[in-house]
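Why do we bother with a discrete structure alphabet at all? Because it lets us treat a fold like text: something you can write down, compare, and reason about line by line. To make this less abstract, here is a complete entry for TRAP transporter large permease protein. Read it the way you would read a sentence in a foreign language you are learning: slowly, and without expecting to understand everything at once.
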Amino acid sequence: MTTLTLGFLFIGLLVVLVLAGMQIAYALLAVAFTGIWVIRDNLGLAFRMLELTAYSGIADYLFATIPLFVLMGLLVSVSNVGRDTFEVAEELLRRLICGLGVATVAANTVFAAVTGVSIASAAVFTRVAVPEMKRHGYRAAFSAGTVAGSSVLGMLIPPSLLLIIYGVLAEVSIGGMFIAGIVPGLMLAGGFVAMLMTITVLFPRFVLTDPKASRERRLDRTREPMPLSTMVAKLVPIVVLVVLVLGGLYTGYFTPTEAGGVGAFGALLVALARRSLNRRKLWQVMKQTGVISVSILLLLIAASFYSRMLSIAGLPNAIADLVAQSGFGPYGFLLLYTIIILLMGMILDSTSILLIMVPIAAPIALGMGFDLSHFGIVTVLAVEIGLLTPPFGLSVFTVHSTLDDPDVSIEQVFSATMPFIAVMLVVLVLVALFPLTATLFL
């Protein structure tokens, strides 16, 4: 049996282990260790490569970005910045068609610029936006679907943990990945807004329980407006954080790691100023930061070990030759790759997909002439769709469990996210066909 055949068999074994319930980090380590041992017939070499990978895999100053951005996101979540952002967006946009839906997307867009985790956005805005939307006559399932659908912006608008993980796996600049995510992220947010307004006009009963009463409530001018000073006070913390982190990063004043440190410190000051951080909450935040960061770093070590096994088996080169001989061409390969990721998104979580696919696909994409930053945005967009597609749909399950409403079934929330999936597919096609959308500011 050739090393190439063994390599494909070990990839299949990895997928089977993950589907069987084994944690992705342990599955990657086990498959990579066994693969190197079997392919080279040398147990000592497998142990030696595991030792080298465990040290060199994360022995870089750059990896400090992970705990720092995680800490910033958690501090922002406990300081109620998300709630304030939604309240201001609601005040400014409530007279628009589907105003509260648009406000949810707008608040998610701003919130994503300081958290980087879709699940955090989903949990925060389920508590904040859904009750307010229901109170104004929006259907409960549509409200939950709007929160779940717009929460995926956290994985694309920088800073994003998925962009960091992709940057590490593909060995491209994390700062460059953040910059590449700006235009596609705004395209996605704009697409969501246009879709919500169109659906409300064409299918009002899908959105509202009583369209006529909701219209009267939307146009009601007797409601006391929020004072400008209150709006400014609510927006200042998140605006300052966005300017500190993204402004410093994009102007080149901060490295990604320094931006994470400044953002975490700024978020700490915001939480302390708002008196939303006591000893118990601080301990919970620090503990959760450690758990999330160690989990991600362990995954990156395992993915690096897995990449070495693939290289020893000669898989990336072999697959690149196979694609070149098949006559698919670069965009044929990109189409096939995207379809595979979309299918995997139905059964695996986002991080697992990146860890399995990027070490194989990134070298092939580079050999075919793709800019790896553009390729990464296409990858993350495709992976994001998996957050909304059944049966896995992590964002949908997060919203449903946080909502805890017996009248709203998980199937109803999945149905309400279908328009968001359609918009994401359109943006995915546009970004894939027009690389400038991702490379404009690089």
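What the structure line is telling us, in plain words: The chain has a mean pLDDT of 84. The chain has one domain: 3-439.
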